[in-house]
Amino acid sequence: MTARRGNILITALVLLLTSVVWHRLSPVAFAQHPPAPVPPSLKTISVPLPSNLDEFVKNRAFAVVLGKALFWDMDVGSDRQACASCHFHAGADDRVKNQFNPGFPITADMSFGDAFGRTGSGAQAGPNYTAVAGDFPLHRLSNPEDRQSFVLYDSDDRFSSQGTFAGAFVSNPSLFVFGIDACGSADPATDPFRVNGFLVGDVFVRKVEPRNTPTMINAAFNFRNFWDGRANNIFNGVNPFGLRDQQARVWLENADGSVTPVQVALENASLASQAVGPPLSDFEMSCSGRTFSNLGRKMLPRRALASQAVHPQDSVLGPYRPLLLPTGLNYTYSQLVQNAFQDRYWSASQLVDGTFTQMEANFSMFWGLSIMLYEATLVSDETPFDKFRGDFVTPPNPAALTAQQQLGLDLFMTKGNCIACHKGPEFSSAATHLQAENQEEGLVERMVMRDGGIALYDNGFYNLGVRPSANDPGVGGRDPFGNPLSFTEQYLDMLRGRDVPDRFQIDACKFASPFTVDFPLSSLTSPDCHGVPFNPADIDGLRTAVRGTFKVPSLRNAALTGPYFHNGGQATLGQVVAFYNRGGDRTDVPGGDTSGVPSNVHPDINVLALTRAEQLALVAFLESLTDPRVQCEQAPFDHPELLVPNGHPFNQYTVVADPTTLNTKAVDSFMTIPPVGRDGLPGILQPCLGTFADRLGLSQSSGVTGS
Ligand code: HEC
Ligand code: HEC
User: Fold this and answer.
1) Distance from the Cα of residue 444 to its chain's centroid
2) Residue 462: CB within 6 Å of ligand 2?
3) Atom of ligand 1 nearest to the CA of 225
4) Cβ distance 127 to 193 under 8 Å?
5) Range 234-247 average pLDDT
6) Other C-beta atoms within 10 Å of 700: how many?
7) FRET partner for 53 with CA separation of 20 to 30 A, picked from 207, 587, 610, 629?
8) Ligand whose nearest atom lies closest to the CA of 615
9) CA–CA separation, 250 vs 242, rounded Å?
10) Which of 570, 606, 465 is nearest to 140 (CA)?
């Protein structure tokens, strides 16, 4: 009795003291990290990979062959859509036709956006519209230097990538034709991606994703992937959700040829978690209701890349080309799996559930790990910036950056304060090695907000006020099981005594909160810090800066990966720099929108007052982060041939119905990306890649402001 009262007293005292201390601390006192140094070359760090990888992978080189073939193979999608169909231009997408999404819900708790309206250039927006320069930025101000000035145009539409046609999966195609699945038609009540078909009424067109497509080059360095981090750091072999899905199982062979379902967990495999999402997504690659086993059954007997040409000097696939056929490899996917993965995951004689072979049933695991290993080879560490910095073998070369770029680097580090978030050789504080290095506080940090309040947040995820949080909650969203995506929100749930799915390290004592939690959760009987008990009633008072926050993207190759931000709202680097220079696009209504919630916008997003010359220097510096091998598609960035869906003939008013789909779907336009070998585009006498700005007839620096 006495002891309990004593505890309560101490708690009250400590909470009082802490709140006084919290209150007194100025932002300066909270800046406990020393100023970040100029990032070193990317060559100084290596790609993080799971430590237990070899339990699954027998031959990593073959896994890369398998992963590269799967990533580029158009037979994977229900309707000729490959991963690469949206990641074909420096790992991103520079198409301009049929790329608008009307502001569609992303997670279950998301409100619907409005329908297509007018575009920024005054045109009738809608599916199959071709964007022009005047459509950007998606939030346009009468004075681009003043975020409070009159708003000329504002839209919650997103500029992204077209994926698949809607419709329910019926069956796999026969082995001898293209990989087009039999699928039903979309539902006109729920699918806004429709255009009037010539003489036949509405027909469906390819759906467009609700967030802009980031590059997968260097994505191997991200601790979590996707703008909202929902591709879990831990791969469960089946889907993107890691330990959040306790039912996920792969099938292990027993000595007698039977199979047993087992749970697997590979750490630092966020790319594998990511990769198993799109093949079944009915926005990206699949008719709805298709399973990974269906996909395995379709792909395993097929020859890899059966309908696509492979360049003889392809740095990975070249040696496996057939002598007598013009396309593909001389391996089926089944043979590649057998070469790449441990036998016990595919060689069982017993069927799984009496239906699928073990290899088909484990296809999601082969898919995720092989694509992860391919993407782990896509590291762009030969930029002018890397040469400028030098590495363990090459001395720094001061001439690698122009004087203007060096001024830009200086501004990046100082007046622009870009380094606060775009840290390390990855230029992103969401990078794995920074998360690990940052053991001081772990994956949850605290910051002083603009209004002086203190909030906890997910390290590496910030709200810049690009859009009101109500348009897209980002890391404030939830997974399909109802768990918060955010580590911060999970931390608060832990303090409330609930079980949370993710494993992560937080040392709250270090951030002077009265709470601490050590994993594993079983130890969570009485969390305390410095011997201080804690008061669960206080948790609800803790403020978080999670809603509307997004992963800090790497800036490497940014010159080639426009348009920018999670909504694709800025077309050029000049427009991005002007955005930062005016302190973002939020208006100073509390919450940055009309919700009345205190603003989550990061306090560093404030007027920078850069001159025009300084903004141009920042753009020039960002251009120094382009690896020429990425721009010219040289090894390891070479690739097979690909036909990319590029809208549908005609425009947003009229398309042509495809009679083979009983006039339910529009005829596609395809653009051909030619196969290149290790010498890239110069090797086939083609120019290296241009920018998204080029596609709109703009220069990369267009949009900078001031005099
Ligand atoms: C229809 C277009 C489309 C297709 C097809 C597609 N992606 Fe993406 N990809 C996107 C979009 C859009 C995002 C961002 C989604 C988000 O963050 O919510 C993304 C995100 C990613 C990321 C995360 C990068 C980061 O920095 O967070 C990786 C890696 C990636 N895709 C790889 C793949 C792979 C592998 C496949 C095939 C299995 C694939 N994509 C298929 C459009 C596509
Ligand atoms: C408070 C952290 C923070 C600071 C400071 C910051 N950034 Fe960012 N940056 C981000 C985040 C987060 C995003 C993604 C935001 C979104 O889409 O909502 C981003 C996106 C970008 C992008 C677009 C990349 C892409 O692929 O879409 C560029 C370019 C960029 N930042 C450059 C800069 C420059 C230049 C500066 C300095 C003037 C800077 N950033 C300062 C966090 C920051």
Assistant:
1) 20
2) yes
3) 27
4) yes
5) 97
6) 24
7) 629
8) 2
9) 13
10) 570
Is 109 a residue whose pLDDT tops 70? Answer: no
Residue 12 clears pLDDT 50, i.e. is over it: no
Q: What is the Å distance from ligand 2's center to 553 Cα?
A: 7
Structure tokens at 355: 């239906």
**Residue 518 pLDDT:** 35
Question: Of 62-66, 123-127, 200-204, 698-702, which range is least confident?
Answer: 123-127
| Residues 513-570: tens digit of each pLDDT | 434 333 322 233 334 444 444 556 667 667 889 999 999 999 999 999 999 999 999 9
pLDDT of res. 436: 61
Alpha carbon distance 562, 571 (integer Å): 6
Least distant ligand from the CA of 704: 2
Distance CA 306, CA 82 (A): 13
Q: Which atom of ligand 2 is nearest to the CA of 608?
A: 38
Note if the bond before 636 is cis, omega within 30 degrees: yes
Q: Which residue has the tokens 């708003």?
A: 151
Q: Which of 537, 505, 510 is nearest to 523 (CA)?
A: 505
- Confidence at residue 498, expressed as pLDDT on a 0 to 100 scale: 86
Task: Choose among 161, 283, 166: nearest CA to 664.
Answer: 166
- Identify the band that residue 8 occupies on the pLDDT scale cut at 50, 70 and 90: very low
Q: How far apart are CA 475 and CA 498, in angstroms?
A: 20
CB 618 within 8 A of CB 701: no
Query: At which residue do the structure tokens 């057939």 appear?
Result: 322
Calculate how far, in angstroms, residue 87's C-alpha sits from the geometric centre of ligand 2: 21
Pocket test of ligand 2: the residue of 427, 445, 580, 593 to mutate, having most ligand atoms within 8 Å of its CB, is 580
* Number of other residues whose CB lies within 10 A of the CB of residue 687: 9
pLDDT computed for residue 175 by the predictor? 85
pLDDT digits (tens, 9 = 90+) for 403-453: 999 999 999 999 999 999 999 999 999 998 877 655 555 688 878 888 777
Cβ distance 78 to 645 under 8 Å? no
Ligand 1 cavity residues, CB under 6 Å: 71, 81, 83, 85-87, 160-161, 163, 209, 211, 213-214, 216, 219, 222, 225-228, 271, 274-275, 278-279, 284-285, 371, 551
Residue 351: left (phi > 0), alpha (psi -120 to 50), or beta? beta
pLDDT digit string, tens, across residues 614-650: 999 999 999 999 999 999 999 999 999 999 999 999 9
User: Which residues are CB-contacts of 19 (< 8 A; sequence separation ≥ 6)?
Assistant: none
Q: Whose CA is nearest to atom 14 of ligand 1?
A: 213
- Look at 53 and 156; give whichever has higher pLDDT: 53
285 lines ligand 2 (CB under 6 A): no
**In sequence order, what are the residues at sequence separation of 6 or more whose Cβ sits closer than 8 angstroms to the Cβ of residue 343?**
58, 253
Q: Is the CB of 153 under 6 A from ligand 2?
A: no
Note whether 45 and 433 are within 8 A (CB): yes
Q: Which atom of ligand 1 is nearest to the CA of 164?
A: 1
- Cα dihedral 35→41→44→45 (10° resolution): 80
- Whose atoms come closest to the Cα of 551: which ligand? 2
Tokens of 472: 């897209």
Number of C-beta neighbours around residue 58 at 10 A: 16
Is the distance from CB of 549 to CB of 421 less than 8 angstroms?
Answer: no
The confidence score (pLDDT) of residue 463 equals: 94
Q: What tens digit of pLDDT does each residue of 114-165 get? A: 567 789 999 988 899 999 999 999 999 999 999 999 999 998 899 999 999 9
Name which residue sits closest to atom 25 of ligand 2, judged by CA.
564
- Indicate the average pLDDT of the chain: 87
Which residue out of 576, 624, 704 has the highest number of ligand 2 atoms within 8 Å of its CB and is therefore the one to mutate? Answer: 576
Structural tokens at position 16? 């009082």
